[in-house]
Design a protein that fits this description.
Blueprint (H helix, E strand, L loop, with lengths): L1 E6 L5 H10 L5 E7 L1 H5 L7 E5 L5 H9 L7 E4 L6 H6 L4 E4 L5 H6 L1 E3 L6 H12 L1
Parallel strand pairs: 1-2, 1-4, 2-3, 4-5, 5-6
Length: 131
């Protein structure tokens, strides 16, 4: 099962919507955390758990608490460097979805911007980890 952690405050609505279009939802556990405004900008499919969080780093803390350290694939929809240790220490394949990822995320993960790189790049990553 792919673990998907989404920081809705850290990505634009078009990038989030693009990711949601290609997520194999029946193969994923998805948690999206963010401000009511950010969460309200996207139509969340059934099965995606959304949690409102307001305040500096509130979303980061909730996502870090929800993170499960295992060997399964991890998708982090955020470019926030605060997740550098999570990404570097994860035992399975890691995808960071972001248009401006922190350098520590780029060192330890595949980075795809669904707007610049396209949906096929996302599909190829999911196909590879689900084989």
């Amino acid at each position: 099962m792919i673990q998907v952690l989404i920081d809705a405050d850290n990505l634009s609505a078009p990038r989030l919507a693009a990711l949601l279009r290609v997520l194999p939802l029946d193969e994923c556990r998805v948690l999206a955390v963010g401000s009511p405004f950010a969460l309200g900008q996207v139509e969340w499919p059934r099965g995606v758990r959304t949690v409102e969080a307001v305040g500096w780093q509130a979303a980061d803390l909730l996502l870090a608490e929800a993170y499960e350290h295992d060997g399964e694939p991890l998708v982090l929809a955020s470019g926030d460097g605060d997740f550098g240790a999570v990404v570097a220490g994860h035992e399975g394949p890691v995808l960071v979805v972001s248009d401006r990822p922190a350098s520590m995320l780029r060192r330890s993960a595949t980075v795809i911007d669904p707007i610049q790189d396209g949906l096929d790049a996302l599909r190829q990553w999911f196909d590879a980890v689900l084989d």
